[in-house]
C-alpha cells in the first residue's frame, strides 16, 4: 500500500466519521424538539403565581424562635454527649 493510498483512505474514513456524527447530532436535535413539543402539548400548565404579602412578625413568632433555639441546643448537647 502506497502512502498516497493510505492518506486517501484515512481522509475518506475521516469524512465518513464526521458525516456520521453530523447526521446523528442533527437527528438528536430534531428528536429533542419533537419530545419537547409532545411534553408541552400534554403537560398541565403551571399554576399562576399569586403575589401575597408576607405576614408581619408577631410576638408568638419570636417565642417560637426561642423554643426552636432551645430544642436545637438540647439536640446538639445530646449528640455531643454521645447518649
TrEMBL record:
Keywords: Cell membrane, Ion transport, Membrane, Sodium, Sodium transport, Translocase, Transmembrane, Transmembrane helix, Transport. Its cofactor is Na(+). InterPro entries: Na_pump_deCOase, OadG. Its main location: membrane. It is found in: Cell membrane. GO terms for molecular function: decarboxylation-driven active transmembrane transporter activity; oxaloacetate decarboxylase activity; sodium ion transmembrane transporter activity. One of its GO terms (biological process) is sodium ion export across plasma membrane. GO terms for cellular component: plasma membrane. It holds the Pfam family OAD_gamma. The chain crosses the membrane at residues 12-31. It is a single-pass membrane protein. It catalyses: oxaloacetate + 2 Na(+)(in) + H(+) = pyruvate + 2 Na(+)(out) + CO2. Its EC number is 7.2.4.2. Catalyzes the decarboxylation of oxaloacetate coupled to Na(+) translocation. Belongs to the OadG family. Heterotrimer of an alpha, a beta and a gamma subunit. This is Probable oxaloacetate decarboxylase gamma chain. The gene is oadG.
Amino acid at each position: 500500500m502506497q502512502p498516497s493510498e493510505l492518506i486517501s483512505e484515512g481522509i475518506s474514513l475521516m469524512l465518513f466519521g464526521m458525516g456520521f456524527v453530523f447526521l446523528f447530532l442533527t437527528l438528536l436535535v430534531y428528536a429533542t424538539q419533537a419530545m419537547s413539543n409532545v411534553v408541552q402539548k400534554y403537560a398541565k400548565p403551571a399554576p399562576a403565581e399569586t403575589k401575597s404579602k408576607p405576614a408581619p412578625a408577631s410576638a408568638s413568632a419570636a417565642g417560637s424562635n426561642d423554643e426552636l433555639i432551645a430544642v436545637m441546643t438540647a439536640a446538639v448537647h445530646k449528640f455531643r454527649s454521645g447518649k
